[in-house]
Design a protein that fits this description.
TIM Barrel
Amino acid sequence: MTHKQFFNLILVITALFLTQIGSEAKSSVTVGKGIWINIWNYPENPEMYCEQLKSKGIDTIYLQISRSNTPAIKNPASLNKIIKSAHSRNIKVIGWIYSFLKDPISDAQKFLQAVFYRTPGGDSLDGMAADIEEVTNSRSIETFAKAIRKSVGPKYPLIAITFSPVLKRADPRHYAWKTIANNFDIIAPMTYWHGFVKLRSEKGAYDYTAQTISKIKEYTQKDNLQIHLIGDGQKTSSAEINGFLRAAGDHNINAGVSLYPWYTPKEHQVEALGMFKLSND
């Protein structure tokens, strides 16, 4: 082997290694178990809140940072406290923005302000997600995602919060599933079964979750897609949550699970989530 051939081989091996690292970084950011918080329900005592989550094995907080019609960082003082309290306990804080996408470039700029935000101590969010519920056409979503990707680079893990594809409003004729899958690294469907009275049981939650996973793969046509399941914490029982979590395990969910609670999570909800073990935990 000549020196030139050897050098080229090293370049190829290095490129493959870096690609693998980037892929692992993207897939690992949401792995684990988390609780969602919106901008109206920041905990009054972040230290106590984070300590409770940590004691139950919850390792991620999904914290709303803004909406399209608010400042890019809605509550900076509270945000700083939550990040500090969480990171001191090795809890990740992944931010999210409710993006109307009526002005995709403006929404992208707000998203990026959160990505690059630093606390007075120099700390930052561990990731960012976009909630896509209002404008859902391919052009707006792609414009938004590409504007973000241009600034963050190829290795930053972009997360899309979506409807469950079981819902009529998420029909692929007007909800751009393929565009989302092509521009985001992780899809996090809102798997909220409790609004359907007939599904308020362990079996109902299981079935709804299983259908959500199956249809996402069908609509995106990506079997190896990174999926993070957001479970229903809106007055749901332990049995329902167990059904949701069991479906996640049975269908090999690869990017973690979480609950979106009604105001703050109930003790039984945190207990059920904390006790659950995914294969990649």
